[in-house]
Design a protein that fits this description.
- The chain is of the alpha+beta class.
- It has a domain at 8-67: CD59 (Ribbon), CATH 2.10.60.
- It is 25% helix and 23% strand.
- It is built from three helices and three strands.
- A three-stranded antiparallel β-sheet has the order 2-1-3, sandwiched between helices.
- It is globular, with a radius of gyration of 16 Å.
- The protein starts with 13 loop residues before the first strand and ends with a helix.
- The relative contact order is 0.24.
């Protein structure tokens, strides 16, 4: 599959994923990094990981092909049976993290 990198075979043993929110959309960068460098970058950018414009989120993973696509979860049966309600879309940090987990 597209956008998968195996970062567990060298000194750069972690996959570093960056999600940037810019005025023209959400941008993704994936690279390999040493575990120390990735964890330092991830913790250093926590204050900038807001989910808003100019947000930068960095996450790390260290299992083989961990930045590949993940299967989508099925909604619980009760959600499908719920009456129609108006739900406003909210762009938040949780949505941004969900996007990271789906695309990385």
């Amino acid at each position: 599959p597209e956008f998968i990198v195996n970062c567990t075979v060298n000194v750069q043993d972690m996959c570093q994923k960056e999600v940037l929110v810019k005025d023209d959309g959400i941008h993704y960068r994936k690279s390999c990094a040493s575990s120390g460098a990735c964890l330092i970058a991830s913790s250093g950018y926590q204050q900038f990981c807001t989910g808003k414009l100019n947000s930068v989120c960095i996450t790390c993973c260290n299992t083989p092909l961990c930045n590949g696509p993940r299967r989508k979860k099925r909604p619980p049966p009760s959600a499908a049976m719920a009456p129609n309600t108006l739900q406003r879309p909210v762009f938040s940090l949780s949505l941004l993290l969900l996007l990271v987990s789906i695309f990385c």
